[in-house]
Design brief:
By secondary structure, the chain is an alpha+beta fold. The protein has one domain: Alpha-Beta Complex (Ribosomal Protein L22, Chain A). Helix content is 27%, strand content 35%. The chain contains five helices and twelve strands. A hairpin with a 5-residue loop joins β2 and β3. It starts with a strand and ends with a strand.
Length: 167
């Protein structure tokens, strides 16, 4: 099961990660490392995590295996320049702000799952019919999506259940 912790209070990313890992996972003063593309991880540890933030919300997903996690506020508008970069199949599924951000966060969560940069993979990744495709082939990594308090979230990594705690 994936545990999600979120706050709407201003918080620094590494401090939020340290607070959650200390309080809920008994990992005081965690040594947070970053991959070459900035994905945070613990050098020694049996948990994986990923951080996301959007318009005043910061959230951390923590689980036992790799996770990609992204959220976006639904109060924004679809960005025409970004919409134009979605595939034709994706555009056929996007008819609302929620659809736009569900596709956006699904792609982003997959890229974060891999620990890569969005710019490097944007044209290679597609979210269609609830599945991620890479260069036209199904990636085989499920995406779980949900909405909460005016935000849409996507989780990539094979999780089927999650719990949410506001901190």
């Amino acid at each position: 099961m994936l545990e999600i912790f979120y706050t709407k209070q201003p918080v620094q990313s590494d401090a939020f990660i340290a607070k959650i890992l200390g309080k809920y996972y008994n990992i005081p003063n965690p040594a947070i490392c970053k991959s070459i593309h900035g994905k945070p991880y613990l050098q020694k540890g049996k948990i994986c995590f990923n951080l996301t933030h959007s318009k005043g919300l910061t959230a951390l997903a923590v689980g036992k295996h790799e996770v990609g996690f992204d959220c976006e506020s639904l109060s924004g508008k679809p960005r025409p320049a970004v919409l134009g970069k979605f595939t034709e199949r994706e555009k056929g599924e996007i008819s609302s702000v929620q659809d736009f951000y569900r596709h956006w966060t699904a792609r982003e969560s997959y890229v974060k799952y891999l620990g890569e940069q969005l710019a490097a993979l944007w044209r290679k990744v597609e979210f269609f019919g609830g599945k991620i495709y890479v260069r036209g082939e199904e990636a085989g990594v499920p995406v779980l999506q949900f909405d909460l308090d005016g935000y849409t979230f996507s989780i990539c990594g094979g999780y089927t259940r999650y719990g949410i705690t506001q901190v």
